[in-house]
Design a protein that fits this description.
Elements (H helix, E strand, L loop, with lengths): L1 E5 L1 H4 L13 H13 L4 E3 L7 H12 L6 E6 L7 H12 L4 E6 L10 H5 L7 E7 L3 H9 L4 E5 L6 H4 L2 H8 L2 E5 L14 H4 L4 H14 L4 H10 L5 E5 L3 H14 L3 H10 L5 H4 L8
Parallel strand pairs: 1-2, 1-8, 2-3, 3-4, 4-5, 5-6, 6-7, 7-8
């Protein structure tokens, strides 16, 4: 299983289970260092992730040993600003001449007037491949057909709609790189069913109770089962966020352990109850 460090936590408070807030520079450097030592080779960031790009650019030289990591960033298209200018801004913050991938942060931008300009970005502009971050499998499939070379999708124990729709199969056939976010559903899987935050999301208590009961019966933690599901997703790169260095190390170690539990993850998919969109899509969650 390939792993990437999701760096939204480096630039802003993020995650339903996050009570520590955004790490300071020392803690952020420790997270990057832990990711490197744990074998992660990708960093995922975005213009919308607060100070994330700038934090990476400033701290990476001191925190990352060995070969430089691959970086994927994202931005929203703007009719007043060219994609080339937006990419140049990201590269300046990251202190890089080039990144390995840049993705549209909003799937609706596939219909933006500047989409063709974005799709035409090349190594000369400072990027090796372009892609799109998707919520719906329909846009993911359109993105592949439009020539996107990388995708970011949401997929987890509650939501495998992209896999069911054939997105991963087509991506593999076309040689498209797939990043999978929300493998822990922004930390929801870590909350007990009766937690105040989970109870405020319609349907979450029922879904979490089913998940935790299944895990209890099979003597596995929700985190391990979630990563075991990630291991079933062909050659996808799994994004893992971290609030601190210890969490980055433990998540990476757990990911390697979880590979042996793939069959149990597939059994969960066969037995799980129907999960409503109010739980699956964080955009529908009330402000917590």
């Amino acid at each position: 299983m390939q792993l990437a460090l999701g760096t939204v936590q480096l630039g802003m408070p993020y995650g339903i289970a996050n009570t520590a807030g955004m790490p300071d520079e020392s803690a952020a450097a420790d997270i990057l260092r832990a990711a490197c030592e744990s074998g992660m080779r990708w960093l995922d960031t975005a213009a919308a992730y607060g100070q994330s790009e700038s934090v990476i650019g400033k701290l990476l030289p001191q925190a990352w040993s060995g070969p430089a990591p691959c970086i994927a960033t994202k931005f929203v298209l703007d009719e007043k600003i060219t994609p080339q200018t937006q990419l140049a801004s990201a590269l300046e913050k990251l202190r890089r001449d080039q990144v390995e991938a840049v993705l549209l942060h909003q799937e609706k931008d596939i219909d933006h007037p500047r989409f063709a300009d974005f799709a035409a970005l090349t190594a000369t502009d400072g990027v090796q491949s372009v892609g799109i971050s998707c919520y719906t499998p329909q846009i993911a499939l359109r993105g592949i057909q439009a020539g996107m070379r990388c995708l970011q999708i949401q997929s987890n124990l509650f939501d495998n709609t992209h896999a069911d729709a054939g997105v991963l199969r087509l991506a593999r056939e076309r040689g498209v790189t797939v990043f999978v976010r929300s493998i822990f559903l922004q930390g929801l899987f870590f909350l007990p069913p009766d937690h105040e935050r989970s109870q405020r999301i319609p349907g979450a208590e029922m879904a979490l109770r089913a998940l935790h009961d299944f895990c209890h019966r099979h003597a596995i933690t929700p985190a391990t089962l979630a990563l075991a599901y990630g291991a079933t997703l062909d050659e996808a790169i799994i994004l893992l966020g971290a609030e601190n260095a210890a969490q980055a190390r433990s998540s990476a170690a757990l990911a390697h352990e979880a590979e042996s539990h793939r069959e149990l993850a597939l059994r969960w998919l066969r037995e799980r109850p129907s999960i409503p969109d109010s739980v699956i899509q964080p955009a529908f969650w009330p402000k917590l």
